[in-house]
Design brief:
- By secondary structure, the chain is mostly helical.
- The protein folds into two domains: about 50 residues, no CATH class; about 90 residues.
- It contains four helices and no strands.
- It is elongated.
């Protein structure tokens, strides 16, 4: 299993290197990949499967998810900052003349993103709490 994890991380690192180059396309690809990986984990851990038979596996999985969710704080903050930034080319719902409504809707989206950031922080704390308890469990 460690080999698979290392290989998957290596592949991701080659496809979307941490230090770039960065583009709109690589950002979108990375976001879509998060969704695909969650879908994979959901399927791989569904009822009837033995992938979570060991407490250590549940702990390690939860710990990795906790690390990912902790990173969402920065990501949601950056998304909020991006949509709050004044952009004279932004328009609303196909109406290129309606710049004011675009500003209003951008502010509304920023509020939702900030709420998501705070919710992610709470989720990260709960996952961290679970990891603390899970780390004390084992199997024979």
């Amino acid at each position: 299993m460690d080999t698979f994890t290392t290989e998957l991380s290596d592949v991701l690192g080659q496809y979307v290197p941490y230090d770039g180059p960065h583009s709109r396309e690589t950002v979108l690809d990375a976001a879509r990949s998060i969704s695909a990986l969650v879908r994979y984990i959901n399927n791989a851990t569904s009822p009837g499967r033995t992938t979570l038979a060991w407490a250590h596996t549940v702990c390690s999985t939860t710990s990795s998810l906790c690390a990912a969710v902790h990173g969402m704080d920065q990501l949601f903050d950056q998304l909020t900052t991006a949509i709050e930034r004044e952009d004279p080319t932004r328009y609303y719902d196909g109406d290129h003349r309606n710049r004011e409504l675009a500003r209003v809707k951008s502010a509304e989206a920023a509020r939702y993103l900030e709420t998501a950031r705070m919710s992610a922080a709470t989720l990260a704390q709960r996952l961290s709490d679970a990891c603390t308890v899970l780390g004390t469990l084992g199997n024979d």
